[in-house]
Amino acid sequence: MSGPARKYLAEFIGTFVLVFIAVGSNAINHLSNGSLGLTGMAIATGTIVMVLIYVIGHISGAHINSAVTIAMTATRKIDVGDCLAYIISQVSGACAASIMLLELFPSAVMSVNLGATSLGTNIVPKTGILIEAILTFLLVFVIFGVAVDSRSPPCRRLLDRLFGLLDRSDNWWNRCSIVV
Asked: Each residue's pLDDT tens digit in the chain (180 positions)?
């Protein structure tokens, strides 16, 4: 498969996997009486995002979030047609993962509201929307600063700094890039 369909399939699969792991870890945490905890669920979700960036980043840019896709369109990194197809792929992938989780863990998934966040008892909707807007801005800000801006450090140097363990002769790391 090549061309645009490959990008859209990558976004579908990426969003499916993200929702499956994020909501699934929440359901497993519920079924295991909190054995994962917030830290375990955050590690599962963060790790899968990192893996997805490596797996589909070179195909679609690994947006896996409609806010990222809209920001990429607003800054003319992708065109409106791709934006719409990406969002359809992302929503479809998220729905497919939710349906799969409902089949696998019906009571647990329903008890955690399909993994949807909810406002705390002392948080009014206006504050919740503001918090969501700020966090979404920060997500997109980091993505643009790290992956989109051509002045950001190349992937190889960044990984060398983070881990210091990479074999410099391994060509796989030299091909590390995100397509936008």
From this structure: 778 999 999 999 999 999 999 999 988 998 899 999 989 999 999 899 989 988 998 899 889 999 999 999 999 999 999 999 999 999 999 999 999 999 998 888 777 777 777 788 888 999 989 998 999 898 888 888 877 777 776 665 555 555 444 444 444 444 444 444
Residue 94 lies in a domain: yes
How many structural domains comprise the chain? 1
Q: What is the pTM of this model?
A: 0.81
Four-residue CA torsion sign, 43, 166, 10, 142 = positive
CATH of the domain at 97: 1.20.1080.10
